[in-house]
Amino acid sequence: MTINRKKTVKVSAPGKIILSGEHAVVYGYPTLLAAVNRRLTLRLNKRKNDIKVVSNYPPYLAKYGLRKVGQKLRLNSNQGWRVKIDSTIPMTGGMGSSAALSVAITAALYWSTRNNWDIEKINRLAYEIEKKQHGNPSGGDNTVSAYGGFLWYRKESEDLKNFSSLTPKNKIKIVIIDTGNPVENTGDMVEKVKQMRQFNKKEVEGIFKEMEEITRSFLRFLTGERSYNLSNLLNKNQELLERIGIVSPESSRLIKKIKSLRGAAKVSGAGRWKKGSGIILAYHKDPNRLMDFVKRNKLKCFQVKLGEEGVRVEKS
Ligand code: PMV
Question: SS3 for 61?
Answer without folding.
Answer: helix
